[in-house]
Amino acid sequence: MITAVYALLPLLVAVPLGRRTDHGRCAPLLVVGVALISGGCALSGLAGSQWAGPAQWMRSTP
Question: Which residues span the membrane (predicted)?
């Protein structure tokens, strides 16, 4: 189920974003993409320390 949800976003977003870049307006998309990837890398780097506590708390909550 999680894999299906993860694959759903590119399926729904790829065509509209591809059309937008085909019209020559790709600079804002590049900035957003770099920001999202940087944020994901930062969260990944913090996952072993800062976010381990809240993640464990969420798993133990019924």
Answer: 30-49
Report d(CA 60, CA 54) in Å as an integer.
Answer: 10
Per-residue 3-state assignment (H helix, E strand, C coil) for 1-62: CHHHHHHHHHHHHHHHHHHHHHCCCCHHHHHHHHHHHHHHHHHHHHCCCCCHHHHHHHHHCC
Mean pLDDT per 10-residue section of the chain, whose length is 62 residues? 75 84 81 88 71 63 58
User: Would the pTM of this model clear 0.90, i.e. be above it?
Assistant: no
Do residues 32 and 23 make contact, with C-beta atoms less than 8 angstroms apart?
no
